[in-house]
Amino acid sequence: MQTQAAAALVRTVELSRPTDVHRTLSPLRRGPRDPAFVRTVDGAVWRATLLRSGPTTVRLHQTGPSTVHVSAWGDGAEEALDRAPAMLGEHDDDAGLDPPPGTVRDALRRSAHVRIPRTDLVLEALVPAVLEQRVITRTAQDAWRWLVRAHGTPAPGPAPEGMHVPPSAAAWASVPVWDFHRAGVDPARARAVVAAARVAGRLEESVDMPVAETWRRLLTIPGIGPWTAAETTQRALGDADAVSVGDFHLPNQVGHALVGRRVDDDGMLALLEPYRPHRYRVIRALLLTGVARAPRFGPRLAVEDHRRR
């Protein structure tokens, strides 16, 4: 356990509908050894995060279909409690989505208690998305874990051993080149992280604006493209329509789920168009229920180690 801080602030959150907390929050976890996201044997979810009011550790324990016991420690504890309903998908609105009988309708029914979380933390969602560009998932997760532990801060309160709050924007902007190298991050991705950190203020203020403005600001950053922007707004803004165009596997998965064959990005977007503005919601339902499982074409990507270059 980490060093104890002040006593926890506690709140019971009553959601407006049954919610599967574990699957709702799963996109916020960056691998099984994420130092900022831990699931403990008692079923609780722990998150370490940096809010406007300061670092905090949050423990979320579901005690009923729509009841979640939330505890928080650290300078940002009160803010964390206020943000908890949005993070649990309370403001996620699936109104108007009524697909005809078939694959999509069945997948949505089977994942009916899964919400789209919203953290309102753009940089926190953006950095790991940048690290995931053009590499296999394990490589990105290892880099995230190494950098958070090296440049973040220990999670406040009785957090599980090893939990860390992700670095601040200033800390990300100050990560030396050799530390990115030690984490296995190539120069292009390192430059994108630093560039994003330097304009973090403008990114964070956009959460109170239309999602299109967040997209516009993200796409002005060198090294940030549509895939990274979508991965970011899905988590930070609960963007139910953001499609990760440019993903290596996603078009294949969506194509096989909906028409039984491989498609490219344009084909995937055409198939998803009837479900706008819920395209990400549909994708997630297809993936969660296993409908989008499809054969993978091409050679398996090798683990790249940029530290040897």
TrEMBL record:
Gene3D superfamilies, alphabetized: Hypothetical protein, domain 2
Any one Gene Ontology molecular-function term assigned to this protein's record: DNA-7-methylguanine glycosylase activity
Highest taxon in the source lineage: Bacteria
Stated name of the protein: 3-methyladenine DNA glycosylase
GO BP, sorted A to Z: base-excision repair, AP site formation; DNA alkylation repair
InterPro entries per UniProt: Alkylbase_DNA_Glycosylase/TA (IPR051912), DNA_glycosylase (IPR011257)
Signal peptide (UniProt feature, chain positions): none
Entry keyword DNA damage: yes
UniProt-listed PANTHER family: DNA GLYCOSYLASE (PTHR43003:SF6), DNA-3-METHYLADENINE GLYCOSYLASE (PTHR43003)
Record-level GO cellular component terms: cytoplasm; protein-DNA complex
Sorted UniProt keywords: DNA damage, DNA repair
Transmembrane segments: none
